[in-house]
Amino acid sequence: HVQLVESGGGSVQAGGSQRLSCVASSWTYSGNYMAWFRQAPGKEREAVAAILGGNGLTYYVDSVKGRFTISRDSSKNTIYLQMNSLKPEDTAMYYCAGTSRGGTWYRSQTYNYWGQGTQVTVS
């Protein structure tokens, strides 16, 4: 039974930083994407960033480029999202996602494993 467990959310002031973590259990992350999505109240879930297994290529939505960094620690089966220069519009529930199949990094349909989410509130 694959589990993705996020941590690190909370409240932060605008301009501040926060780091999210996602640990995958019962699944070895390799060869495919792991990603962070977010969903704000009344809005659709959107992809924020993804990292590709193997070569470690990273992808970002335009609104977070230069502010967010996705990284991984393969030995811990963990990915991270370092968020700097946070803005109120970054407020959302952040979800970790993983896939055992191919697809497009920013499409939620690509991912078959999801965490429960961690709330990030920027004021």
Structural description of this entry:
The chain is mainly beta and 123 residues long. 0% of the residues lie in helices and 48% in strands. It has strands at residues 3-7, 10-12, 18-25, 33-39, 46-52, 58-60, 68-73, 78-83, 92-98, 113-114, 118-122. The strands form 2 sheets. Strands 2, 4, 5, 6, 9, 10 and 11 form a 7-stranded mixed beta sheet that branches. A 4-stranded antiparallel beta sheet has the order 1-3-8-7, with no helix packed on it. A hairpin with a 6-residue loop joins strand 4 (33-39) and strand 5. The mean pLDDT is 94.
**What Rg, in angstroms, do the CA atoms define?**
13 Å
* Biggest β-sheet strands, sense, barrel: 7 strands, mixed
Instruction: Give the amount of beta strand, in percent.
Output: over 45%
Helix content: under 10%
Secondary structural class? mainly beta
| Helix count, DSSP H or I runs of 4 or more residues | 0
Overall strand count: 11
Task: Give, in order, the helices and strands.
Answer: EEEEEEEEEEE
Low-confidence stretches: none
* Average predicted confidence as pLDDT: 94
Q: How far apart, in Å, are the first and last alpha carbons? A: 37 Å
Shape designation: globular
Notable characteristics:
single chain; 123 residues; mainly beta; four-stranded antiparallel β-sheet; 48% strand; globular
Secondary structure blueprint with pairings:
Blueprint: E1 3-7, E2 10-12, E3 18-25, E4 33-39, E5 46-52, E6 58-60, E7 68-73, E8 78-83, E9 92-98, E10 113-114, E11 118-122
Parallel strand pairs: 2-11
Antiparallel strand pairs: 1-3, 3-8, 4-5, 4-9, 5-6, 7-8, 9-10, 9-11
